[in-house]
Design a protein that fits this description.
Elements lengths: L11 E3 L6 E3 L22 E6 L6 E6 L5 E7 L3 H56 L5 E4 L7 E7 L7 E7 L5 E8 L8 E5 L5 E7 L2 H10 L10 E4 L5 E7 L6 E5 L10 H13 L4
Antiparallel strand pairs: 1-2, 3-4, 3-14, 4-5, 5-6, 6-7, 7-8, 8-9, 9-10, 10-11, 11-12, 12-13, 13-14
Amino acid sequence: MYELRPEYAGRLLECPVCHRRLRAGGVAGLERPPAAGVDPAFDRDVFLLRERVLTITSKYEVWAENGTPILYVERPTYLLRTIVAYILGVLAGLMIFSWLGRAAEAAGPLLGPLVLLLSVPLAFFAFVVVSMSLRPLRHVTVYRDESRAETVLRVLQDQRVAFLTRTYTVLATTGEPLARLRKTYLDNIVRKRWYVEAPDGQRLAMAIEDSIVLSLLRRILGSFFGVLRTNFLLLRPTDEVFGEFSRKFTLLDRYVLDLSLDPDRTVDRRLALALGVMLDTGERR
């Protein structure tokens, strides 16, 4: 038994002895009634995600807090098409490098070295543009179960080539856009963050790395054998924390999406789950 400060009431915490995640201050028999008009799979505060290993396609099993499977997620990799795209990108880069090399010889001793110097970044730029343009879009599909008979949510990758900002569109089962997920690569230099925006552009939420100090250490040391795990805080537009997405300290990729700080469920759980999946597969963790 542990005594905790009042602000921990109702939160999902990890026992330091058995490492199980337990609800602090929970009272048996006081379960929240089901919400009307909400898919039961999303009508909850805690989602447990486990990524399957040794698979080409990114696959996640989503469990309820009690370990019951509730959803199944896939994000295809398209390995063969991706390899072909990279090969064509390399050929495009070599062609640019070869052409600029001949141009450098013709430019003479004064301008030749300058042209040759520019050939390397231009060839690399051609490789990136061609390979990324030919790579297939990797959409995320959330299914009711592993049979994949019923789709309950989709996350569409909007761009093949993205230099500064990449966006994803979250779609309901009816095809209606629910929100847009956006990340800016410049933000990732110091502290990773993702934005959740309504279709009209209004910000709904933000996910940000849990600590600026840990963020900088991760840039230098990487995950350091899993010790510096990348966890995210989920914030409202007012910077109020309403949840967290944390990686468990295990050999396998297991995550906890805890939204217990939003007991009234004002944040759409479909958007929160889509964000949680992208915080892993979208960051290539």
